[in-house]
From TrEMBL:
InterPro entries: DUF3267. Pfam families: DUF3267. Keywords: Membrane, Transmembrane, Transmembrane helix. This is DUF3267 domain-containing protein. The chain crosses the membrane at residues 23-46, 66-92, 124-144, 150-172.
Length: 196
């Protein structure tokens, strides 16, 4: 660790962080336009799924359970989301999974993943986008192509869950490929190290 700190002296440190409130509002700016594109395309491609009798029979079959399904999916899905971050980053860490910390922010009832090591920009971004890609974009595309509303809705739910990740990736848009990045230990965001 001490050697890594000495090497970091050759870099200029830039914190890219924001409050949870601001992050939630800005993350919606990434997600809402995507929803406004995807949902009408699905309805256009599969209009028979939105006929009155189909919708009635769906609600009759599922009743009040329809409100529990997203919650039942989201809780284990949030854990898998964080595991995907950690497992991807661990591939690029010198100490592997020992450099990954998992936990729960109890005040917000949300699990989190923190990478303790400094990573190359590409590796950090890959870990940042992995849950949104695997659990969000891919199931949304599969659902859209197959006309499977469950896959489609699952994907949209986890695209929503990846809104904060998309925001952090957006914050890194001006970083150079040779920059190094580290998860911020306390705030939403990261620390970028630019060669001095």
């Amino acid at each position: 660790m001490e050697q890594q700190e000495l090497q970091m002296q050759d870099y200029i440190k830039q914190e890219l962080t924001m409050s949870a409130e601001k992050a939630n509002v800005l993350a919606l700016g990434f997600i809402v336009p995507l929803l406004l594109v995807c949902v009408p395309i699905y309805v256009w491609m599969w209009p028979e799924q939105f006929e009155a009798h189909t919708i009635r029979s769906f609600f009759t079959a599922h009743k009040e359970k329809i409100f529990y399904y997203p919650l039942l999916l989201f809780i284990p899905g949030a854990v898998v989301h964080e595991l995907l971050h950690g497992l991807t980053w661990a591939v690029f860490c010198k100490n592997g999974l020992k450099s990954i910390k998992y936990g729960v922010h109890w005040k917000m009832l949300t699990p989190y993943c923190h990478c303790k090591e400094v990573l190359p920009l590409k590796a950090y971004m890959l870990g940042g986008m992995m849950p949104g890609l695997v659990m969000g974009i891919l199931p949304t595309i599969v659902g859209l192509m197959l006309g499977n509303l469950y896959f489609f809705a699952f994907g949209l739910l986890f695209i929503l869950a990846a809104g904060g990740d998309a925001l952090i990736l957006w914050m890194l848009r001006k970083a150079k490929k040779q920059d190094l990045v580290q998860d911020h230990p306390d705030l939403i965001g990261c620390i970028v190290y630019k060669k001095a």
